[in-house]
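Hi again,

Forgot to attach this to my earlier email, sorry! This is the prediction with iron/sulfur cluster bound. I've pasted everything inline since the attachment limit keeps bouncing my files.
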Amino acid sequence: MKIYSYSKLSTFENCAFQYKLRYIDNIKVDKDTIERFLGNTVHSTLEYTYQNRENLLKKDKPKEAMTELFNYFWRKDYKDSITIVKRGKGAGDYKSAGARCIERYFDKYYPFDQNKVLGMEERIQIKLDAEGKYLLNGIIDRLDETPGGGLEIHDYKTGMNPPSQEKIEKERQLALYHIGVAEKYGGRKISLIWHYLMSGIEFRLEKTESQLQGVKEETMGVINEIEATEEFKTHKGPLCNYCEYFGSYCR
Ligand code: SF4
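Structure tokens for the complex follow:
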């Protein structure tokens, strides 16, 4: 039985050929984009901050310490081979934008004690049907327990433009995580929170049972489509510029 993930499904929906190269042929290409690198660096900074919150609280200048942590992760992992697609932008622009995300997050949430953190990069399994034929794995950026005993699924986004409310309501990733968390923790109120860190915009939603059922059916439909696909076609478009196979395995 194959186990899927949100990223596998969205890769297939964006370009079936990319899905084949990445997940069927297992072709690994050591090529990263600045957007992915920035996202990973911000995620690492927030993960480390929550895990070492007590240390941060002891600092004379906690905001500067948190920004320095971001700079440290950036310096440690940055490689000259990282691709910058947008014309007129350099790595320094992205680094400054990332540091601003961290400062804005600090201003809003310091001392980071709004909830009890149950897990960072929390792994969950998502079962879409009673028989367990349709399974996904997921990794939640942060799972919190509120003072009232509810659960919050937090997701950090570093894309430049936040989506509309309508798009967020149709978004599948956190709804899938909701299904996995409900199965693991049972019978508790669950809220979904998207942090769009570049703009400081936050979306917060709760899903009804019928909405979750709709997400299950839609997702099983995508899995059926993947499994029935014989010819994995290319889908050329603006996303090709960000694809690791562009110029080598796909022209
Ligand atoms: S370069 Fe474009 S068409 Fe080719 S695999 Fe990547 S996303 Fe698909």
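Residues 209-228 form the longest helix (20 residues). The beta strands are 3-5, 116-127, 135-145, 151-157, 190-196, 201-205.

That should be everything now.

G.
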